[in-house]
Amino acid sequence: MLPPDGSGGDPGPGVVRCWDTEMRRRRRAPGQRGPSVIIDCHGHFTTAPAQLGAWRDRQVAAVGHPEDAPDPDDLVITDHELHEAIETNQLRLMDERGSDLTIFSPRASFMAHHIGDLELSSTWARLCNDLVHRVSTLFPDRFAMGAMLPQSPGADPATSLPELRRAVEELGAVTVNLNPDPSGGKWTAPPLTDRSWYPLYEAMVEYDIPAMVHVSTSCNPAFHTTGAHYLNADTTAFMQLLQGDLFADFPTLRFVVPHGGGAVPYHWGRFRGLAMALKRPDPETLLHNVFFDTCVYHQPGIDLLTDVIPSSAILFASEMIGAVRDVDPRTGNYFDDTKRYVDDTPHLTDGEREAVYSGNALRVYPRLAARLAAAGH
């Protein structure tokens, strides 16, 4: 368990709990216009207190020796430690860069579904989801929960249903991360269009939640985790969807393909040509159900994304604090400060930019929209 320290969820003095017009005005340069709200759809808890990683190391070390596995109750992280982890990292940068709310899920590389078995993954997913839920409770106006699923190589995807339902019903998750390759770079799972995935899709439709298609750590030495495996998976997932008829069976199912869609927008002509050769519909028909985020870390990349892909299928995101954390020496700005690129691209009108920053997210994540509406935003 991850027990609170008795603070009752009070964020303490000096913590920005909510966003408002005045706060947003202070973030802008004089005379600069901007959207009414900025929603970052892609954030992970990469700065969790060290106890989480230490507990996980003990769990992994006990694989094959269940008697040595750590008790979930051994993991104790206080609310004060969560405040420190968030306020000095993600929240500080959100305020500096001008984003209002982040959809926040467990650290993607920590999911590591290829380690152990379903039971181990289930315990780990529950701990990580509980921790992110606590963050969203401590900072309810700044973070909305996304959940990981306890996937495992060879396990029926339906085995993730209990944690998916718990995350939505009890923890308030507005989305889940779906790993198309639980094997960690060996690609042993069937394509996302395979009927074995359907029980998860049925639940997603029932709850009206999207999934971010997101792999985890690569255990294949040929695939660097964040430089190759992540982008390979984004591209592979889209190609699987292009080859199949999934959305004929689930017309309201929604996927977010992160990292700018992998290679897809940048080779759009290839995918259009392949669709013709395979006698498939034009890939743009998928963009009622498939959305790309803006985790692309240079201006030319965002310019191409926004030129090729309709703005209705683009969601603002930064994946901050994530794989690329340094300052670009060519610009003097952080690579992952993606709002600068979206602000500066010439391929969006003011209305389209507003949609990328918030309107599209409120369509794709209706549970988030309902939560914000209930809070008066």
Give an overview in words:
With 377 residues, the protein is an alpha/beta fold. It has one domain (36-374): Metal-dependent hydrolases (TIM Barrel), CATH 3.20.20.140. 41% of the residues lie in helices and 9% in strands. It is built from 15 helices and 8 strands. The protein has an 8-stranded parallel beta sheet with strand order 1-2-3-4-5-6-7-8. Helix 14 (350-364) packs across helix 15 (366-374). The longest helix has 21 residues, at 118-138. The chain starts with 20 loop residues before the first helix and ends with a helix.
Can you identify the CATH superfamily?
Answer: Metal-dependent hydrolases
The number of distinct structural domains comes to 1
Which architecture per CATH? Alpha-Beta Barrel
Give the overall pLDDT as a whole number: 92
CATH third-level topology: TIM Barrel
Helix and strand composition category: alpha/beta
Just give the CATH class. Answer: Alpha Beta
- The coarse overall form would be globular
Biggest sheet strand order reads 1-2-3-4-5-6-7-8
Number of helices: 15
Distance between the termini: 32 Å
Tell me the fraction of residues in β-strands, as a range: 5-15%
In quaternary terms, these chains amount to single chain
Radius of gyration: 20 Å
Gist of the model:
The chain has 377 residues and is an alpha/beta fold. It contains 15 helices and 8 strands. Helix 7 links the parallel strand 3 and strand 4.
